[in-house]
Amino acid sequence: MPLGWYLAQGMYPLAPDSSDDEEGPCELPDGRVVCGPHGFVVCGKCCSDYSFMEEVLNEDEDEDDDEDDEEALEEIARRVQGICTQPPPPPADHVRSPVRGTEKRRGTGLAFPTKFCPPSPTTTPAEVFSGRRAWMRAIRYTHRNDPSMLLLLTDGACLNNGQANPKAGWAFVHQAGTGPDDPPGVAEGRLESKGPFGDDAIQSSNRAELRAVIAALRFRHWAGENFHTAVIATDSVYVVEGSTVWARNWIRNGWMTRGRAPVKNSDLWEMLLGEVERWKDAGMDIQFWRIPREWNTVADAAAKAAAENHDVDEWRDIIGMAI
């Protein structure tokens, strides 16, 4: 869509392909973020949900009433694009390998993930993680200069998102393929109607995105495969910014926003941060890399296919076996 069309609608295009809609998100003059093609905060056609930006705007609200509007818009654009602003942590000196467990742990703020910094904004995961390392018969995506860095690509989708009868699914890519007859290894599942701690939950694209990350982290005892870092590549701004930036304030505020409203999907946020802490105890760091949707087509297609599966009530883990 040409820039003039957006401006005529009072919209500002922010970042291309940051959701399932082809035109990406746009910001309205009142600060709300909507999908480009249809102008909805929650759009069932695009499988996108930008309602979390309202929480972010409240969290980031500056007490200075004279704050420059242009600078505020640039800050939102920077966040939506997920540009990395900090270097990755140094590799761990050693990796401890406790017995793998599937206990559910609520994060307490003892550890947070960081952002992965690619060589440039145009460098793709295939270029950075061009290494291949075998574990039993599984071939992992590894960093070209560091075979102890693992790449996992995750995605979530919700059909009829924000409408009647929504159906959400998640997926992640954990294994490299060797050719047309050996495609990449993908795990997928339908989003459960109950959260990890037994709470009733809705079907939404944001919950599916979080669920995909949690599933990927719990799929294998990654430290046992001698990885010291797991890089999660996702096209979800919600996941990347929420886990690396916003969650710090949420924990300090008792999982309440600055406006004293409960943080949405707090059960999955707590579970995700619990996984980060669990892997930190095992000597492994978690990093997030926000990538465009066109770099994540395999996980995207699998998540949409999983959303068509039968309903799932109780939470269930999918554990991968090295064969």
Automatic annotation (TrEMBL):
<dbReference type="InterPro" id="IPR036397">
    <property type="entry name" value="RNaseH_sf"/>
</dbReference>
<dbReference type="Pfam" id="PF00075">
    <property type="entry name" value="RNase_H"/>
</dbReference>
<feature type="compositionally biased region" description="Basic and acidic residues">
    <location>
        <begin position="93"/>
        <end position="106"/>
    </location>
</feature>
<dbReference type="InterPro" id="IPR050092">
    <property type="entry name" value="RNase_H"/>
</dbReference>
<keyword id="KW-0255">Endonuclease</keyword>
<keyword id="KW-0540">Nuclease</keyword>
<dbReference type="InterPro" id="IPR002156">
    <property type="entry name" value="RNaseH_domain"/>
</dbReference>
<comment type="similarity">
    <text>Belongs to the RNase H family.</text>
</comment>
<feature type="region of interest" description="Disordered">
    <location>
        <begin position="83"/>
        <end position="125"/>
    </location>
</feature>
<keyword id="KW-0378">Hydrolase</keyword>
<dbReference type="InterPro" id="IPR012337">
    <property type="entry name" value="RNaseH-like_sf"/>
</dbReference>
<feature type="domain" description="RNase H type-1">
    <location>
        <begin position="146"/>
        <end position="308"/>
    </location>
</feature>
<keyword id="KW-0479">Metal-binding</keyword>
<protein>
    <recommendedName>
        <fullName>ribonuclease H</fullName>
        <ecNumber>3.1.26.4</ecNumber>
    </recommendedName>
</protein>
